[in-house]
Amino acid sequence: MKRYGLTLGVLALALLGLALTQGMMGGFGSGMMGYGPQYGPGMMGYGMMGGYGMMGMMAVYPPEARPIPQKEAKARMEAYAKRIYPGARLKDFMAFSQNYYAQVVDEKGQGLFELIADRYTGVVSPEPGPNMMWNTRYSMMGGPVQTPVRFPLTEARKLAETFLKGYLPGAQVLEAGTFPGYYTFDFGRKEVEGMLSVNAYTGEVWVHTWHGFFLGE
Asked: Could you give the C-alpha distances from 108 to 52, 87, 158, in angstroms and in order?
């Protein structure tokens, strides 16, 4: 019995190690749908950056918890952004059931990066997913890119629209934001129902599954 239990324990540890390695190496999230010229629809990966993974899991709060005011969330996000880029300002501040979200732009209105703030604690952090994996200027994977952008905004929008035909029939791209190395699009049928990003170099599509329901702007 001891030998049998030990064998199962070793196997479980091995499988856990393999899963963690694949997640860290691939950087895929549970919301990443690998739709692109080199993949085709339907490819999915689960890893460290997922919508319900280590960085995007649904948080648990006590029954008496109440969301912090939007004004306070904005102030915290703006202060965070300015520590990274002094001339930063917020754009497209949005409230979701899981977090507040904002795009950060420079003095000229050009996209820099994306932020989220926990609705109940007010803790601000870089948005997971594309912002942390594809941003060629501010992400952990950032750095000089030698190859030219393969998909400009117009082409990336077409990829997003094609993806939405299968992912959420009837949904349309509502608004676009350009960031270093990728684009983020709001989508929905009548109003915002979610977000997705498109890689400017590979054409991959990554759905932002960590926000929850859209509450308003």
From this structure: 35, 10, 26
Q: Which residues are 202's β-sheet partners?
A: none
Torsions phi, psi of 111, nearest 5? -65, 135
Q: Which amino acid is at 70?
A: Q
> Tokens 């689960």 identify what position?
46
Which has the higher per-residue pLDDT, 186 or 40?
Answer: 186
Closest by CA to 127, choosing from 152, 154, 90, is 90
- Give the mean pLDDT of the chain: 78
pLDDT tens for each residue of 70-92: 999 999 999 999 999 999 999 99
Contact 33, 42 (CB under 8 A): yes
- 75, with CB counted inside 10 A (0-12, 13-18, 19+), is middle
